[in-house]
Amino acid sequence: MGFDARQVGIGIRLQWVRFGVTNLSQIDNKPSISSAIRSAELIALAADVLRNFGRLRMQVRGQSMLPSIWPDDIVEIESCLIDEVRRGEIVLARRENRFFLHRFLTRSKANGFLLRGDSMPGPDPEFPNEALLGRLVSRTGQSQSRVRNQALAPTRPFLPLRPWSRAIGQLLCHCDVARSLVLKLHACRINAS
Question: Residue 159 sits in a domain of what CATH number?
Fold first, then answer.
């Protein structure tokens, strides 16, 4: 899932509030800076928070991980090394001032790794090893309680990709009507709760 400045801003705000910093107006309300520069600054700030403190919370906006992760879910990312990641785990990677929260497929022979969104038609272009920032440890949906990562249990990765989940993801990838309908039903369910 790609995140831009508007999408990451809330997550950064959540993390900084946790550390006692509540005034981010100097960071995300600079009218003299273009939105592209502001986006790059927020992405860099989020990556620094993750590196320095080991954890980061962000609000998801993208739809590439449906049905495992929904727009507006709050995810918590824990810093990790590439050697600690297992196939099927959901990880956060950075490329060209964008975040990608996708499922880890495999390490490549060329000192990199491949990711894929659950509702994407194919894998992302290869990421270099240093692009890996961390792995998903929990998520909180709008209408559900917090879901903890079970990746520490050696037998089962967090939010495993089940056959029905992949099938639904592919349907949502290739059928705009189905994606729109599912997102509207999800929004209705959230508004009703």
Answer: 2.10.109.10
Q: Which domain holds residue 98?
A: 2-192
Based on the structure, what is the number of domains in the chain?
A: 1
Positive or negative: CA dihedral 120, 99, 15, 47: positive
Whole-model pTM: value is: 0.73
Buried residues in 155-181 as b, exposed as e (16+ CB within 10 A): eebbbebeeebeebbeebbeeeeebee
Residues 6 or more apart in contact with residue 136 via CB below 8 angstroms: 75, 76, 77, 89, 90, 91, 92, 101, 149, 158, 159
Q: pLDDT digit string (tens) for 160-180?
A: 667 778 788 889 999 999 999
Helices (DSSP H) in 23-144: which residue ranges?
25-28, 35-53
Q: Decide: 112 and 129 in contact? Cβ < 8 Å.
A: yes
